[in-house]
Amino acid sequence: MAPSSSRPMRHHHLYLLLIVVSVSVLLTSVPASAADELPELGGDGLHKEILRDETVLRLKELGKISDGEGYLERTFLSPASIRATAVIVSWMKDAGLITWVDQMGNIHGRFEPANSTQEALLMGSHMDTVIDAGMYDGSLGIICAISALKVLKVTGKLQRLTRPVEVIAFSDEEGVRFQTTFLGSAAVAGTLPESILQVSDKSGTTVQDVLKMNSFEATAAAISQVSYNPESVGSYVEIHMEQGPVLEALRYPLGVVKGIAGQTRLKVIVDGSQGHAGTVPMKLRRDPMVAAAELVVTLERLCKEPNKLLTYDEECGCFTEESLAGLVCTVGELLTWPSASNVIPGQVNFTVDIRAMDDKVRETIVTSFSRLVLQRCDDRLVDCKVEHKHSAPATPSDPELTSQLKRAARSAVSAMAGRAAETPVLMSGAGHDAMAMAKLTKMGMVFVRCRGGVSHSPEESVMDDDVWAAGLALVNFIEQAAVSSELLLPEAEPDAVVADL
Fold it and tell me: What pLDDT, in 10s, does the model give residues 105-141?
């Protein structure tokens, strides 16, 4: 890959400056000692060899297992995925866990205390990647959890667990191959439909075909056996890189997630009159490209300034600044036909992705945009249709679990930095396996700071000491939740920073 030019770097610094300015109001509520940047995290006696050094080496090792030449790509049950499975299994065994691979390719590593009847603590993330991926997305949550349990093993605390603990490396979260997300975690949660077996990839290969190729049973009955009984599971916890710039702007290594935004995906189809670019007068054109461009700008304005475009009937007056926080809308794909420079297009299709923590806000934006599409298209004498492709409600984190994770994270960062530090609370605009697992049990998440908020890119970067902090926080949490019935961390905590950008 060619080195970046100086121009993108200047844009990067400007972007971070804007983010810092935008969250400055949040920092006014933070004591000066906490708002200052934490010193370089260091120190001894905090399991650095396992939680930082070994974890980082394993992240790099897993990041080299790829189906692509010169870039990272590891999709559902691909050859690289199978190779990665063997490596992850070996790491789980090294941590003292019993391992198995279920009928959807999920990798499990579990420790079952003797005579334990309590509900299990599940941890993990996904092992699949996007195309041309970075090495932290998904993998960080798997390896941090394995490392935390290895620390308990070497310190003799694994045998003192009072409830089962399990790490799961989910086989598919990104949905790259079959364009349907959460194949792995939805199967565990018991929400994966039988019809998934007949979904095909671009080559016409179905999920059932791929399962059979890898010696899985590939039947509806086998998939149903993957699901867990909700009564056997107490909670699910996921470590994940933030995939956004807030923690970097706030200068904190870790944050806890208060919830995952709901999401709606639309496809807008605009039909006009195809014609010669040089012979059709401007006043006689029914150009779907111009109409589509106007609709994209309309969507941007609707999501930037919703109260200016929403009508009274859509109850815009009920939306507070808090409910509108985190609303984002994206047009990520635009296709034209016949897509020639000297032809007025006959049809333009584009995708719309709308996300918000408040489901009522998201649903109102969808309704309002659909109405505006019909109005704008009618004005331009083109035909338009809005198709609903996907919808998922917002997923709140469990408050008690979030509180425990806040204490664990604060304890870890404070121990490493040598002084007390608060724990920011964020929302997640991206979907995660925790979203699917929340249908099975209560869930909580910890975000880890990443450079520039860059994700789904080989430029993903998480500082080694932040990896260490995440692992130590998970050790603290497991000790609090599963080693003893008494909380091992102090009850009192300062008010947390709430970041809803």
Answer: 999 999 999 877 789 999 999 999 999 999 999 999 9
Distance between CA atoms of residues 325 and 498, nearest Å: 11
The residue with tokens 């694994």 is 158
Calpha distance 148→405 (Å, rounded): 14
pLDDT in tens, 376-402: 999 999 999 999 988 889 999 999 999
Q: What span, in angstroms and rounded, lies between the C-alpha atoms of 470 and 254?
A: 7
Beta strands in 14-106 (DSSP E): 98-101
Eight-class DSSP state of 198:
G
Q: How many residues does the chain have?
A: 501
Would you say 113 and 164 are in contact if contact means Cβ atoms under 8 Å apart? yes
- Contacts for 335 with CB less than 8 Å, ≥ 6 apart: 348, 349, 350
Element (H, E) at 93: helix 79-94
Q: Is 267 exposed, middle or buried (0-12, 13-18, 19+ CB in 10 A)?
A: middle
Q: From CA 352, how far away is CA 333, in angstroms rounded?
A: 8
Rg, the chain, Cα only: 24
Q: Tokens 């810092």 correspond to what residue?
A: 20
CB contact at 8 A, 158 and 115: no
